[in-house]
Amino acid sequence: MPPKQYHVTDTELLVLQVLWERSRATTREVCDEIYPEGSTSQYYTVQKLLERLESRNCVERDRSQRVHIFSATIDRETLIQERLRGLSDSLCGGSVIPMLTGLIQMRRWTTAEQKQLNQLLEEVSGKKSKRN
């Protein structure tokens, strides 16, 4: 069974980022984060974005109180993996090597980042050898 796909627009991503940072938030709180000087129309825009995310199971709504509280049901890592999978499919025919090469070569890495990357590669290598 293929992994579940979440199609999230850039504007919806702003909403999710607020929920990831806060854990839970009302429509007003999300609106205030995204649009500090928010208008009524921007409030309704955020409300609609939350409804769309809820319909795609990216957020859930607590209706137990008068003011509904939203929380993300998709985590940042899952969304990153999905977006990268889609990018590798569209740009690299599904191969991740050209994409990884581009990411690695696009900037200088700190010593700490290089160490993290090496640890990740060792973990992946260890998982593969355990499966074989």
UniProtKB/TrEMBL annotation:
Gene3D superfamilies recorded = Winged helix-like DNA-binding domain superfamily/Winged helix DNA-binding domain
Select a single GO molecular function from the record's annotations and give it.
DNA binding
GO biological process terms held by the UniProt record? negative regulation of DNA-templated transcription
Task: Name the InterPro entries for this protein.
Answer: BlaI_family (IPR005650), WH-like_DNA-bd_sf (IPR036388), WH_DNA-bd_sf (IPR036390)
Coiled-coil ranges per UniProt = none
Looking up Pfam families in the UniProt record yields: Penicillinase_R
Q: Which UniProt keywords apply?
A: DNA-binding, Transcription, Transcription regulation
Q: Which family does it belong to?
A: Belongs to the BlaI transcriptional regulatory family.
Its protein name is: Penicillinase repressor
Species of provenance: Gimesia fumaroli
